[in-house]
Protein: Dihydroorotase
Amino acid sequence: MAEATIHIRGGHLVDPANGIDAPTDLYIADQRIAAIGTAPDGFNADITLDASGLHVIPGLVDLCARLRDPGQEHKATIDSECRAAAAAG
Structure:
C-alpha cells in the first residue's frame, strides 16, 4: 500500500536543528518531510491537516514511562525495565 502524502497547513513549526520557530506549512511524502514552506513540484496531498494555532514538532517523542519500582520489586525494577527497553531497541 502506498504511503499517504500529507500537507500540514499553518502550524507553528519548531525545528531547532534547522533554525525554524515560526508558523509555516509542512509537506510529508514517503513518511519523510519532503518540504517546509512551499510544496515540492508535483506534490498532491492525500490528506491536509489544518494545524492553525497548534505546534508542529517533528521528531518529538513522548518519553513518558511507567515503572513499578519502588514497591513492586518482585515484578520488575528500574534496572530490569531499562535493560528490557534497551534490548528492544
